[in-house]
What does this fold into?
Amino acid sequence: MNAVAAFGNRRFYGGGPALAVANPNTSSAIRKISSRPRPVVNDPNLLFGQWYSAVVGRLNLLTGLEQGWDGYSAKAIQFSTADFALEVLKVLSADDTPLPDIIPGSGGELQLEWHTEDRDIELRIFSPFDAVAWLHYPSKPDDDKEVALTSDFAEVGTWLSDIVEQKRAAVESAA
Amino acid sequence: MLPSNPPRDADGIVQPHDHADILLPDKIIRRISKEYIANDPKVQGGKRLSSMAFSSSNDRYRGMSIDLERPILEDNIDPVAFVTTPKWIASVVMTTNQFREEKLQVGYDPMNDNPYHGNVWGKLTPAMVRKFLAESTWYVGIDGIEHPKILI
It folds into this structure.
């Protein structure tokens, strides 16, 4: 079985360990975010739904990239990194959180990116429990933030909540 | 003419260095995979290059791979054709000086299948990458994909 099939099948038929939540260093902050209404992988209505299948499809593609996919010597994204990214997304995503772009790096890392009209959020996962997140305001670069992350992604959750609130406010004002 | 032999460690791996034969105005090409394209409502067309376009490898010294334009030209090879394939559809270009201004090292690291291969060594910070995205220009562009110049 190749890496692509293995990644998809493992998730669709029983799933693996919930990395972020299972980590003994998990903070109360991450549990707080986890308790928000969000998709859960065991929900049969979600299992083949848009959120999950879109993310798993993208991660499958990235774990199956050929060596040299970047035009040089980059290898495919490690399964463990993709698995961790999926777990992080499950923790961070509320029902109306926009899906990020999932971009691979030449060093085997994955970056989750959310870009809106006034800000950019980039969460780079080098390997499980080794990540960095950036919040960038193009019009207010002095307010930029950078945080190193292991298992507590609460700050990124707050950044994403702001985007969701903005989106809700825009919908309400348009109505 | 190819740059002179680069310094290597005991295992034969090229060590980080600033190569004297790679001059400040020399053009440095970075190939762009379609996997580096992200959505961004701030840019025209809604799509842009991700900052991951400037990411380092996970080899021993974590260099960022590049192609050196001048030796390709000196060997009478079309550099656009050399760095472009159906898989690596695009590329961006900067000068050696733009990297060295940021205290990054630009060196020569020939590969079996690419004698014009080099590396940029040093820590690529988010601010630095945003600067590179803004300062670089398409060498071979992708229709409808903008450089995110508004990020600076």
About this structure: Residues 130 and 152 of chain B are 7 Å apart (CA to CA). The beta strands of chain B are 27-32, 37-39, 47-49, 64-68, 90-95, 105-108, 117-121, 137-140.
